[in-house]
Design brief:
The protein has 174 residues and is of the alpha/beta class. The chain has helices at residues 33-42, 86-90, 106-113, 129-139, 165-170, and strands at residues 6-7, 13-14, 17-26, 55-64, 67-76, 95-98. It is 23% helix and 22% strand. The longest helix has 11 residues, at 129-139. Keywords: GTP-binding, Nucleotide-binding.
Length: 174
């Protein structure tokens, strides 16, 4: 393994740059949002996960070469009674993961039509969970180090409103 960072005393490479991004999980109730996050952050899976009330907040980092990508993860509740709170949680997010029941295969077609990253995961078996967050980290812009404070990167965000065709061709081309 090669790294452009300097080595820490324990032999692990030290990232020269730290980027912090807000990431939200969206989806209906009981589709596995919390399970996916718990598998990524803590490496755990609970067969009977309690429903999230409002939202849960967790952090986890991914190392890419000389950059550490720190995710501020907001796991939103999927129940209908919390839908009015959702915009408050995803405001200013740089990435969103839409979690859905795998029997709904319209998601693949939608992702293809809109040039979105699409990956099937399993929180239960851990299939593609780390790969998903790593793929997101690779796609996020890392041109300048992010402030480690709670408002890092808030000037850029996920625009959940429909964009004009001209904007779509300039965005997300990789």
């Amino acid at each position: 393994m090669t790294s452009r960072g300097t080595a820490r005393p324990n032999g692990q490479p030290q990232a020269s740059k730290i980027c912090q991004f807000k990431l939200v999980l969206l989806g209906e109730s009981a589709v596995g949002k919390s399970s996916l996050v718990l598998r990524f952050v803590k490496g755990q899976f609970h067969e009977y996960q309690e429903s999230t009330i409002g939202a849960a907040f967790l952090t986890q980092s991914v190392c890419l070469d000389d950059t550490t990508v720190k995710f501020e993860i907001w796991d939103t509740a999927g129940q209908e009674r919390y839908h009015s709170l959702a915009p408050m949680y995803y405001r200013g997010a740089q990435a969103a993961i839409v979690v859905y029941d795998i029997t709904n295969q319209e998601a693949q077609a939608y992702a293809d039509d809109n040039s979105l990253l699409f990956m099937e995961t399993s929180a239960k078996t851990a299939m593609n969970v780390n790969d998903l967050f790593l793929a997101i980290a690779k796609k996020l812009p890392k041109s300048e180090p992010q402030n480690m404070g709670g408002t890092a990167g808030r000037s850029r965000g996920v625009d959940l409103h429909e964009q004009s065709q001209q904007n779509k061709s300039q965005c997300c081309s990789n």
